[in-house]
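> forwarded from #structure-qc
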């Protein structure tokens, strides 16, 4: 078995070397960096860097060849399958998939270099741009149920309508523990959306920088206290008026 493994590894390295000599995979995709990473001791940190390297690849015919080159190096370095999963997925991949470009992401991440590709492994998402189509896609996405942290910061165009789509009561965010919706133009009526959302695991809610009046802030505090949720509204708030 060991002899067969060594033979396969030698064949993979020879194939990768031939590809590099032919110029099929060139320095423009950072192969020196790839080679260094692939032969480092396997770890979650190095895996995240490899995912970032793939994310920077040009989206042309060289992509498939480069992914095959990466696979050969990972096999030769003995990378364990347990590390080669979508747990190190770049944020940009998740955003692309959520925007409906799933096929393109699966082409990159669904190859043999990544042993298990599952958006359900992603636990944290940060977003600074969006659209009505994006909110609707996220509300229906099956991987949504595995998210533990969602941060929406200065997202132009979210507002109350986007929040209502994203947190529709039928769109259960069952694992979400931390939700940040800061400087997104939320107003008093949008508090009802938050209170009606299916967020059974929520423990921290950050609403700083929105347009919530004193009465709404008081109502949100009472609701958050009853639910055991740590609520952040403003760094320094004026005393609520009676």
């Amino acid at each position: 078995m060991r002899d067969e493994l060594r033979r396969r590894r030698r064949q993979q390295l020879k194939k990768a070397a031939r590809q590099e000599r032919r110029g099929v995979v060139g320095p423009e995709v950072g192969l020196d960096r790839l080679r260094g990473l692939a032969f480092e001791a396997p770890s979650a940190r190095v895996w995240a860097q490899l995912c970032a390297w793939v994310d920077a690849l040009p989206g042309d015919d060289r992509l498939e060849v480069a992914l095959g080159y990466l696979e050969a190096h990972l096999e030769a370095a003995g990378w364990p399958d347990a590390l080669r999963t979508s747990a190190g997925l770049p944020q940009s991949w998740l955003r692309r998939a959520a925007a409906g470009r799933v096929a393109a992401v699966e082409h990159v991440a669904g190859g043999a270099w990544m042993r298990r590709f599952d958006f359900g492994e992603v636990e944290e998402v940060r977003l600074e741009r969006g659209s009505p189509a994006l909110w609707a896609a996220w509300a229906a996405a099956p991987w949504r149920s595995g998210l533990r942290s969602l941060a929406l910061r200065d997202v132009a165009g979210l507002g109350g309508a986007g929040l209502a789509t994203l947190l529709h009561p039928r769109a259960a965010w069952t694992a979400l523990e931390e939700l940040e919706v800061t400087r997104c133009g939320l107003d008093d009526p949008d508090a009802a959306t938050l209170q009606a959302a299916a967020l059974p695991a929520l423990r921290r809610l950050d609403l700083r920088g929105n347009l919530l009046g004193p009465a709404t802030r008081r109502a949100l505090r009472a609701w958050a206290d009853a639910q055991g949720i740590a609520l952040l509204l403003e760094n320094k708030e004026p005393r609520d008026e009676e």
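QC bot note: DSSP finds ten helices and five strands in the chain. The mean pLDDT is 76.
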